[in-house]
Amino acid sequence: MSVKYGILTLLFRQKHHGYELKLELDSLLGTKDKINPGQIYTTLDRLIRDQLVSSPGLDDQERKLFELKSKGKEELEKWLLEPVPYYTTKEDFFFKWSCARIIHFVHEKQMLEQQKAMIISDVMELTKLKTELLLQGDENKYLLITGMLLHLEADLNWINQVENRNR
Hints:
The protein has helices spanning 3-13, 18-29, 37-49, 70-81, 92-102, 108-136, 139-166; strands at residues 16-17, 53-58, 64-68. By secondary structure, it is mainly alpha-helical. The protein has a three-stranded antiparallel beta sheet with strand order 1-3-2. Helix 1 crosses helix 2, helix 1 packs across helix 4 (70-81) and helix 6 (108-136) packs antiparallel against helix 7. 13% of the residues are buried.
């Protein structure tokens, strides 16, 4: 997740102060990831420097506000239209597994089992969350969680294929 584009997205809708941006980015990321507040302000400084965001002043509680400039809107729209490539070989576990294969790691089976257990745990947690989101009527987050579950299912299928070939 790019903090830069998350901030541009949130500022597209309305002006925000830094702490609001942090809370909304945390919500956008879902249950797993949380943004460090320092990362928000460092990113905002860069966005101002690059003339994508400006600070029109303070709100009624003396907090510095930030707003999207037209150049920032163009940057966000350009980014949104760029397709996202799927690089499985660059993902951490696939890279780690490839390294294990190269050195003929004797605990490869344990490595796969542990990864599988973690994925199953994540599937259970996300399935519960998906049900809650459906009941709450939060269609966007429901669909995002559904996509995450499909990726996890594919990863489980891949691990099963690896285990079957290793037999």
